[in-house]
Amino acid sequence: MSEMNLRVSPRTVQQGTVDKLRMAIFTGLFQPGSRLVESQLCTQLGVSRPSLREALRSLEAERLIEIVPNKGPSVPALSWERAMAIYEVRELLEAEAAGRCALRISPEDLQALEASLNAFEAAAASHDGMAQVTTAADFYAIILASCGNPVLEEVHRGLLARISFFRGRSMSLEGRAQNSLREMRDIFEAIAARDPKAARKAAKRHVLRARAAAKIAMETGT
Amino acid sequence: MSEMNLRVSPRTVQQGTVDKLRMAIFTGLFQPGSRLVESQLCTQLGVSRPSLREALRSLEAERLIEIVPNKGPSVPALSWERAMAIYEVRELLEAEAAGRCALRISPEDLQALEASLNAFEAAAASHDGMAQVTTAADFYAIILASCGNPVLEEVHRGLLARISFFRGRSMSLEGRAQNSLREMRDIFEAIAARDPKAARKAAKRHVLRARAAAKIAMETGT
DNA sequence: GATTGCCAGATTGCCAGACAATCGGTGTTG
DNA sequence: CAACACCGATTGTCTGGCAATCTGGCAATC
């Protein structure tokens, strides 16, 4: 491999801070509703306050935190109602993307899509929760990137952070990964067959069932 | 009215800076592609560099500017291709919102919607471009707020900045405002009649025609 | 005893100033 | 003419600080 030195952009402290905080929120290190004290975060992350505050503004725009003037940032509690709303928008976006994909995906991307599907299959078989989440995210990332509408992709990515949060929860359900695999394979087959209508339908069904799984996961506790 | 002093949140310098910069971008004060030099903006806006940089991070998240490490922020040139992509996502979101609205809008919101429609009619008659843009934005804001899905509203608002940019351009076309009024009235009537299918269709048609108008406006120059 | 007023600590909003790293252009040199 | 070194301009980041605001508890009042 030797000298993988293709640093496209030199990763600033600010970016690194955003990533660290985002990951901390995903893994539940910060309880929802808990307040984030700037000075504490500075010492924990080893960055200065200006850099931290820039990072917080980015996360605020991602809706991962809320910043109330003179009260500071906090992790908003993600209500079931709101989670449901996210799933509904997911359904809308992913169905559209899948349908478009069926019409215009390139052979290379189709191949990459199949590869990511296989990667998910392996993750599902190995019961590796983290791998399941990342490979599933890859699968959709390829679909969104290949749908021919960069804004659709951009909007979906804006939702992705909160989507992944739930995906981790629901994948832990017994049998959910295998069902998910079947549904994703349906989407892939429809796209490969260049059938937009079937692709939309499969994508919708996948989100619908993911939502149901998330509901169960949420009701039975974390 | 007396002492309308209910300032819910005390408008920080950072927020004010975001608003000023956003407006400056809308009005075309910054040419697309032009670079924004921090020190210059600081003196022009009368704020310190940390505050400015926080504001820039917020605008970056809104996709109104791009920040390349070590090169600084700049206003991205909005290509026609990208504008088209925005219109497509608009169509998706607004059709969905209108359809949901037809099912669940409250009588008060419906009344507010009619009021905003009348406001737009007045603006269209007076040939006041700015008023047309704001009243049209109001009309859709009510629909998105009443559709029952806060995330849909949130995503749409994320697109709104760039939508308004084009709305201003296309409204200036002869007769576009009157056509727009007709289309919006169709949407309103369908919602008032509680007909989701018609509402979706009307919303789609409205976006489609707005897109065509924007295309013409773009081709004939600013 | 409950409510109100108030004060001190903690925290945020904001700023000035500074320094190293990096980028872009310019001139020099082979 | 190309490659290289150089330099101003700009950004990334930090330190330190001060005023404004919030929070929790204490005392005063009814």
TrEMBL record, chains A, B:
SMART domains according to UniProt: FCD, HTH_GNTR
Record field: transmembrane: none
Boundaries of every HTH gntR-type domain copy: 11-78
Statement: the UniProt record of this protein carries the keyword Transcription regulation: yes
PROSITE patterns, per the entry: HTH_GNTR
Record keywords: DNA-binding, Transcription, Transcription regulation
Keyword Ribonucleoprotein on entry: no
Record-level Gene Ontology MF annotations: DNA binding; DNA-binding transcription factor activity
PANTHER family, A to Z: GLUCONATE OPERON TRANSCRIPTIONAL REPRESSOR, TRANSCRIPTIONAL REGULATOR, GNTR FAMILY
Protein name: GntR family transcriptional regulator
Organism: Aquibium carbonis
Taxonomy of the source species: Bacteria, Pseudomonadati, Pseudomonadota, Alphaproteobacteria, Hyphomicrobiales
